[in-house]
Structure formats: structure tokens, C-alpha cells
Amino acid sequence: MNILVTGGAGFIGSHTVVELCHAGHTPIILDDFSNSERSVLDGLKNILGFEVKFIEGNCNDSSVLEKVFSSNKIDGVIHFAAAKAVGESVQNPLKYYELNVGSLITLIKTMEKHMVEKLVFSSSCTVYGEPDVIPVTEQTPRKPANSPYGNTKTIGEDILRDVVLAGNQFQFIALRYFNPVGAHESAEIGELPSGVPSNLVPYITQTAIGKRKSLTIFGDDYDTEDGTNIRDFIHVVDLAKAHVAAFDHLNDISEPLYDIFNIGTGLGNSVMELVNTFEKVNNLKLNYSIGPRRPGDTVKIYGDVSKANKILNWHTEKTLEDSLRDAWRWEQKLASKK
Ligand code: UFG
User: Fold this and answer.
1) Which pLDDT tens digit goes with each residue over 274-305?
2) Does position 338 have pLDDT exceeding 80, yes or no?
3) Inter-CA distances, 319 with 54, 231, 257, 323, Å
4) How much of the chain exceeds pLDDT 70, in percent?
5) Of the N and C termini of the chain, which has fewer Cβ atoms inside 10 Å?
6) Contacts (Cβ under 8 Å, ≥6 apart) of 335
7) DSSP for 274-304?
């Protein structure tokens, strides 16, 4: 299938492009490099041995989308293009609503016009807020989002549901990602945070390489075994493969559909466990200290992924050790280029 991958030069998008190709699909990347770099295209070429079709443009621009859909045969879309910095979204909510919600609406309208019916949407476990019971299943009630970013994911899901309920022929899947980490094992592509990373693993790898002085662990007095937060850290390649599985599932279906899947490992690891594992697998010592809690952090969350296991026939293949080895290899590769 020819699959339009919006945000295909980003962290999860680029790894998904690789897995789509491996599965025999033909991805077309649409990206405006607002939060990614051109060098990603070289990394993709080095992994795949050929150039993936690439279009530069903003997918919130209806004229760009119109051109993409009228000049390419597109069988379906994976929509990654969005902004994702929780803190920035609090400062600049309109940017988030315009970009994340606006682009989804523009995209669906263009798909409707061109009779493209299949879409996989990047949602997030952020829609569960601080859950009362873990692991969370897809039936776990969503909670009011604690950031505009999180709210754009909740609204995005609602838009998909309502459009399908309105009797359209669409087949939509929302994947609720847990915490994606790691990099491609070739170290040709990985995470490229702009500025100071706000996410844990890039902060760790940048500290280990000497770009940052020390990692601050945001709180060790939570109600968890070692006092640090618990997350479900999933290798980005496993997450990428979930998109291929979601597409293959959509391909088997002809009736209208809106469905949601948790995409994580099904395991919870604490921040401290992750730091210890990073040190162990990479045989190094990390500079870190314990600091105050970060406002808005969920205390503990991990996902029940049995629905994706069963219906999408998708399972994770990689461990936390693999993720942290690959993340470190990627950081070293970045450093060697400078
Ligand atoms: N952490 C630190 N120090 C740091 C960075 C993070 O201790 O320098 C801790 C956080 O407090 C948290 C854990 O590491 O306990 C993970 O933090 P991340 O920022 O890496 O990830 P989050 O779980 O906060 O956020 C992620 C995505 C969001 C998404 C959210 C859904 O980055 O986009 O999951 O819960 F909304």
C-alpha cells in the first residue's frame, strides 16, 4: 500500500517508515522539519538502501495536502505530524490546538475528498491522566487532560470517533502510545530533541556523553516502591511495528471502524530502575541527583496491551536493556559526527 506518513521525519515517524518498507509498503513522507532534521532522510537511505519519497510541507495547510493527495495515489495515512512539548503547550495553547487539532481536521477533510479511508492516529497514554487502577486498559476512563497538549490528543480521538459515528466510510485507529525510547539498532536514526531535552532518556544520554552536567530525577518521594515515577518504556522500533500491524488490520476491514489500542510493553519500570539499567547495560556511571517533583507528572502508569496482542497480532520484541543500549549507541553516533 502507498501510505502517507505525516511527520515521517520525526522520531516515531522515521522508525515507522523503515518498518513500513520492510513490510512491503510504500511510504510517502510529508514533513516540514519544524521539529526534525533533513539528516533523517540520509539515515533512512542508509538503512533502506533507497530513497523514500519525501514532500516538504506543513500538513495543516490545505493547499499542501490537496497537492499531495491529487498528485499521489494514497491508500492510507499515518498521522504523526504534531507538536508534543507539554510545557510549551501550557505557555502557547493556541499553537497546539491549531497545529494538532487543525491538521487532523484538514487531513480528514482532504481524505474524504479523495476517498482515502484508512488512518492511524498518534494518541497518547496522557489521555488516562493519573489512573485509579493500573495497568490501564482501553476501557479505563479517560481523565481531563492536564495540559493543552494532552487535550489535543483527547480531542483528536473524539474527532475520529464522531466522524465515524456520523456514518462516513472511514476506518480509523488511534494508538495510545506509552513512553517511546531507544533508537534504530543501526544508529542511523533516533531521537533528535531540539534544545534541552524534557524527556528522560535523551536527557540521560546527553548527560552520559557530557553535553549536560547531571540528570535531575524529579522526585523520589512518590508512593511507589523506590519513590520515583513509574512508566511503560517501549522501544521505538516495537512501537513503529505496531503501526504496520494497525495498517494490516485496517486492510482486512471494509466496514466503517473506529478503534483504540494501547501500545506499550505491559510493564512498569521506575525512573530509578531505568537509570540503573542504563548504567548497567552500557557499563558506565551517570551523574545524577534527586530534585523536586516536576509539576503535572503522573505518578505511575503502564498499559495492558492484550487487546493489541490479540486483535493486531502485535507483540513487543525488545527489552528495556535493548532500548537503553540503542539510545546510547545513537547518542555516541551523534557525537562522532560533530
Ligand atoms: N524525568 C526525570 N528527569 C528528567 C526528565 C524526566 O526525572 O530530566 C522523569 C519524569 O519526572 C517522569 C519520567 O522521567 O517521571 C518520564 O518523563 P518524560 O518527560 O520522559 O515522559 P512523560 O511520561 O512525562 O511524558 C511522556 C511524553 C508525553 C506524553 C506523556 C503521557 O513525553 O508526550 O508521556 O503520559 F504526554
Assistant:
1) 999 999 999 999 999 999 999 989 999 999 99
2) no
3) 32, 14, 32, 6
4) 100
5) C
6) 209
7) HHHHHHHHHT----EEEEPPPTT--SB--B-
Instruction: Report the pocket of ligand 1 as residue ranges, CB < 6 Å.
Output: 84, 86, 124-126, 150, 179, 198-200, 203, 215-218, 229, 231, 271, 294, 297-298
Q: Cell digits for 133?
A: 487502577
When pLDDT is cut at 50, 70 and 90, the band that residue 66 belongs to is very high
4 within 8 A of 72, measured Cβ to Cβ: yes
Positive or negative torsion for Cα 78, 125, 108, 54:
negative
Q: Using the predicted structure, report yes or no on whether residue 308 has a pLDDT greater than 90.
A: yes
**Prediction pTM value:** 0.98
Q: Is the dihedral of CA 163, 169, 170, 171 positive or negative?
A: positive
How many CB atoms lie under 10 A from the CB of residue 50? 8
pLDDT above 90 (res 186): yes
Nearest CA to ligand 1 atom 31: 126
Q: Are 128 and 142 in contact (CB under 8 A)?
A: yes
Q: What is the mean pLDDT of residues 59-68?
A: 97
For 99-141, the pLDDT digits (tens) are 999 999 999 999 999 999 999 999 999 999 999 999 999 999 9
**SS3 category, 79:** strand
- The residue from 96, 128, 149, 177 that is catalytic is 149
Residues whose CB falls within 8 Å of the CB of residue 75, separated by 6 or more in sequence, listed in order: 1, 2, 3, 116, 118
Q: CB of 77 within 8 A of CB of 27?
A: no
Per-domain residue ranges of the chain: 2-182+233-264
CA–CA separation, 139 and 145 (whole Å): 17
DSSP secondary structure string for all residues of 53-69: EEEE--TT-HHHHHHHH
As separate numbers, helices (DSSP H) first and strands (DSSP E) second, the chain gives 12, 13
Report the b/e string of 19-39 with b at 16+ CB within 10 A: bbbeeebebbbbbbeebbeee
Question: Can you name the CATH fold of 2-182+233-264?
Answer: Rossmann fold (3.40.50)
